[in-house]
């Protein structure tokens, strides 16, 4: 038998410590909170799954969860196709390349709260370009009082902020397709649509997977931008999950309930991401 | 099906070409006749692929015209030229099955389902990929993919021509030979013009009836494999075709005749006279190693030492270092049964097989005396 020792564990230790402090310990703290009712540091009761049952039955959660899904769905439905179209229409060589790359990167460099502030101003009907144009066209637009307008503004803001990311990812995917594929398609008399459908889209699949997951996770956790722009209003029209959670945890200091909420929130994101991933890589394993 | 004619064709990748070196293709006129099997042979970077892409329309020539059956196709896209091209590396549509891949060019033409099915089966059978038809193209091996690529080129039977750009690069040697035979069969069956680009002379001569040898952007000779072997029109053809290539010796016209490294070579007066007519710089004598004879030292004008003998199994290659001042090496290819002299030997070049080149171009000489 080979001599055997456990020294290699020391090499794993740094990673283990890092992951423990960055993920495991905070999460276990949350788990700990979620099963207790805490009045003050010396007074606490174990309540089991009571918080979970209460949260799952809470209409506030139902409402913002539904809102959140609709929002993320809209974000993906707009940003992914739009990003692909932008990437397809970007120049492939020449001076236009660096120019368009810089232009597309700009929104990504703006901090979230600044994006919220920018759109708060742009959306105003008196001094904001966007609000003023809509009102001049005869549309009665006011994001502060009309829930529909608030929704549209939050969506447009997200599209403005994040479509670039999808476009840049797709552009890098398109650039990696060798010219010979396009040449073969011309020889085979493929239409533009067929080139997209059978050459570009299959080659984009991997970057699209990343784009969809990133955009889903980010939009599902969106907080700062709508918070700055609408503060969740009018009413609760644009109050998404993260804001509901923050109100519960910090506004009402309802730690147990908020902890149970965040764990459920986390599991939903994990589950949906897993479903996306499995669905999109499913075909790879087939003959 | 068409005859392809190149008229005053030239191409440069430079925006403002000024010197010959700027041209990837130097001005040329050439005809590929309808139904022929042709090879375009040359070293890497000689312009073969450029020429092929110009014929298919993927590249627009900077000068001259491409004509199909006498009609200029310069302004037509590859789609409208109705031409098939197979590339060096396999190009398959990953998400489609092999059947769908093969059917793709026909579907784009809007052919009927039955007709597509028939053609796909026929081509799949010819390429021995029937068993793969239902599989996704993504999961195939490199040579299976390349067969599918070739199949897409062969599946349309109304094409003007099929162009192959070194299609067997990724295929292993055993299969290479079989696929070449297959292509030849397909050529005979469908009677379609085929142009096959390669840098391998064996590949060229087994596939093609006539070979165009390209060198530095020019077609330096167009002929049957035998013509290329016996009568290289250019020193490059002599050197590139044959294994080993032609021996080329620098010679000069002296007072009394042809001089090589201070020795006077015995050649007919008519040849010397013919060479004197030709103005020009570099004069070379070429002789194929197959025709070099090793004889007794006293009976030859040139002598040397056997430097190296390589036994290739069915023949031997003998390097003889001549004992003239510049000590060049002459290669001789001898049959297995020939006994190679050891040490000093005489070297004889039979007059029938001597070729003379002025500035790399062959000087035509009829050997009526022999």
Automatic annotation (TrEMBL), chain A:
InterPro entries reported in the protein's UniProt record: MetI-like, MetI-like_sf, Sugar_ABC_transporter
Domain of life, source organism: Bacteria
Subcellular location: Cell membrane
Gene3D superfamilies listed in its UniProt record: MetI-like
UniProt keyword Membrane present: yes
Boundaries of every ABC transmembrane type-1 domain copy: 65-276
GO cellular component terms listed in the entry, alphabetical order: plasma membrane
UniProt GO BP: transmembrane transport
Major location (coarse): membrane
Membrane topology: Multi-pass membrane protein
Entry keyword set: Membrane, Transmembrane, Transmembrane helix, Transport
One Pfam family cited in the UniProt record for this chain: BPD_transp_1
Homology family: Belongs to the binding-protein-dependent transport system permease family.
PANTHER family, A to Z: GLUCOSE IMPORT SYSTEM PERMEASE PROTEIN GLCT, TREHALOSE TRANSPORT SYSTEM PERMEASE PROTEIN SUGA
Protein name, entry field: ABC transporter permease
UniProtKB/TrEMBL annotation, chain B:
Domain of life (superkingdom): Bacteria
An example molecular function term from Gene Ontology annotations: ABC-type ferric iron transporter activity
A Pfam short name: ABC_tran
Sequence ranges assigned to domain ABC transporter in this UniProt record: 4-241
GO cellular component: ATP-binding cassette (ABC) transporter complex, substrate-binding subunit-containing
Membrane-spanning ranges: none
Gene3D superfamilies: 2.40.50.100, P-loop containing nucleotide triphosphate hydrolases
Record-linked InterPro entries: AAA+_ATPase (IPR003593), ABC_transporter-like_ATP-bd (IPR003439), ABC_transpr_FbpC (IPR015853), ABC_transpr_MalK/UgpC-like (IPR047641), Mo/tungstate-bd_C_term_dom (IPR008995), OB_MalK-like (IPR040582), P-loop_NTPase (IPR027417)
SMART domains according to UniProt: AAA
Keywords: ATP-binding, Cell membrane, Membrane, Nucleotide-binding, Transport
Coiled coil: none
Protein name: ABC transporter ATP-binding protein
Organism: Salinicola socius
């Amino acid at each position: 038998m080979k001599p055997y020792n456990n020294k290699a564990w020391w090499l794993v230790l740094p990673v283990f410590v890092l992951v423990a402090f960055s993920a495991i310990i905070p999460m276990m703290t949350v788990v700990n909170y979620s099963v207790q009712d805490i009045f003050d540091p010396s007074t606490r009761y174990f309540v089991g799954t009571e918080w979970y049952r209460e949260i799952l039955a809470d209409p506030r959660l139902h409402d913002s969860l539904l809102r959140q899904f609709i929002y993320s769905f809209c974000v993906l439905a707009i940003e992914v196709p739009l990003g692909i179209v932008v990437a397809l229409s970007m120049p492939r060589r020449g001076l236009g390349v660096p120019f368009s790359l810089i232009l597309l990167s700009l929104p990504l460099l703006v901090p979230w709260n600044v994006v919220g502030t920018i759109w708060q101003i742009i959306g105003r009907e008196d001094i904001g370009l966007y609000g003023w144009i809509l009102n001049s066209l005869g549309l009665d637009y006011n994001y502060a009082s009309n829930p529909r307008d608030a929704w549209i503004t939050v969506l447009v803001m997200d599209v403005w902020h994040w479509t670039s990311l999808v476009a840049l990812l797709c552009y890098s995917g398109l650039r990696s397709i060798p010219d010979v594929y396009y040449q073969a398609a011309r020889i085979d008399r493929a239409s533009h649509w067929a080139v997209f459908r059978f050459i570009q889209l299959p080659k984009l699949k991997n970057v699209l997977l990343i784009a969809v997951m990133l955009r889903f996770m980010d939009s599902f956790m969106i907080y700062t931008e709508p918070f700055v722009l609408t503060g969740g209003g009018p009413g609760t029209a644009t109050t998404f999950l993260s804001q509901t959670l923050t109100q519960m945890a910090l506004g009402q200091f309802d730690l147990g309930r908020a902890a149970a909420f965040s764990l459920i929130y986390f599991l939903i994101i994990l589950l949906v991401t897993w479903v996306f991933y499995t669905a999109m890589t499913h075909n790879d394993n087939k003959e | 099906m068409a005859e392809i004619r190149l008229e005053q064709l030239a191409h440069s990748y430079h925006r403002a070409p000024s010197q010959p070196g700027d041209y990837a293709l130097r001005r040329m006129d050439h005809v590929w006749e309808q139904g022929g099997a042709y090879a375009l042979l040359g070293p890497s970077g000689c312009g073969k692929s450029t020429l092929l892409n110009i014929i298919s329309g993927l590249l627009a020539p900077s000068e001259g015209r491409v004509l199909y059956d006498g009609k200029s196709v310069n302004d037509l896209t590859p789609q409208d030229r109705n031409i098939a091209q197979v590339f060096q590396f396999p190009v398959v549509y990953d998400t489609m099955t092999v059947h769908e891949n093969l059917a793709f060019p026909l579907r784009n033409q809007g052919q009927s389902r039955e007709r597509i099915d028939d053609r796909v089966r026929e081509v799949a059978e010819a390429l021995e990929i029937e068993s793969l038809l239902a599989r996704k193209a993504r999961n195939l091996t490199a040579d299976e993919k390349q067969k599918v690529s070739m199949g897409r080129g062969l599946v349309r039977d109304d094409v003007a021509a099929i162009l192959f750009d070194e299609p067997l690069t990724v295929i292993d040697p055993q299969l290479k030979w079989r696929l070449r035979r297959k292509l030849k069969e397909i050529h005979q069956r469908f009677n379609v013009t085929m142009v096959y680009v390669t840098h391998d002379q064996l590949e060229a001569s087994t596939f093609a009836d006539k070979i165009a040898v390209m060198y530095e952007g020019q077609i330096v000779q167009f002929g049957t494999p035998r013509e290329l072997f016996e009568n290289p029109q250019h020193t490059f053809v002599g050197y590139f075709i044959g294994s080993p290539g032609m021996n080329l010796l620098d010679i000069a016209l002296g007072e009394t005749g042809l001089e090589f490294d201070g020795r006077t070579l015995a050649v007919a007066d008519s040849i010397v006279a013919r060479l004197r007519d030709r103005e020009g710089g570099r004069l070379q004598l070429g002789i194929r190693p197959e025709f070099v004879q090793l004889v007794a030292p006293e009976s030859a004008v040139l002598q040397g030492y056997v430097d190296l003998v390589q036994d290739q199994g069915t023949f031997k290659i003998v390097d003889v270092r001549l004992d003239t001042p510049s000590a060049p090496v002459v290669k001789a290819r001898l049959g297995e049964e020939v006994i190679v002299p050891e040490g000093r030997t005489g070297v004889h070049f039979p007059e029938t097989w001597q070729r003379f080149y002025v500035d790399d171009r062959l000087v035509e000489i009829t050997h009526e005396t022999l």
